[in-house]
Specification:
By secondary structure, this protein is an alpha+beta fold. The protein contains seven helices and six strands; from the N terminus they run ααααβαββαββαβ. It is 55% helix and 19% strand. It has a four-stranded antiparallel β-sheet, with helices on one face. The protein has a two-stranded antiparallel ribbon with strand order 5-6.
Length: 195
Amino acid sequence: MSLLIQLIDSHPALLAVAIFCARIVDVSLGTVRILVGFRGYRLLAALIGFCEAAIWILAASKVIGHVDHWYLVIAYAAGYATGNFVGITLERRLGVGRELVRVISYCSACNLAEQLTKRGYSVVELAGRHRGEASVQVLYVVDRRRRMPELLRLVHELDPAAIYTVTDVKSCHGEDVHALDAGGSRGMALRFKRK
């Protein structure tokens, strides 16, 4: 380890690359930590925070120790910016947590609730009115974040004019939560509660 540190210290270009890479890793971890912490994964957030802090101390100490080298400051800042992008992308790919989809369908012939139910989703359907006249279907579906693209693609295929919103769910309670936690294909909890 000390040989690696001596090599990096004696070659400024390697030091700049090392600082850039360290910042990408620590900022990416920080972004993921915040997002998983928001979703209630406290232990995972704490573990990620430990790793993030250790990497940050190493990177920051090298820049502060050589603050007269402008290229190290540039590498540090560029790593920070890139780390934000990488962290958000990584968190999206991990797909941790659940999301609530609210769908409004004006197409009564589409019968969106029935079509989604046939495909394994558990749907809560409400009758609604738009501007007091047109009747609409209002649907609620909760599912894992990693399955959201599939669900939204299906909604669009079945009713291209449907309007939908997607919201993070911090916690949920209800009849199908255990199926969700076990990785089951059904995707709805009928009652929600915020912790």
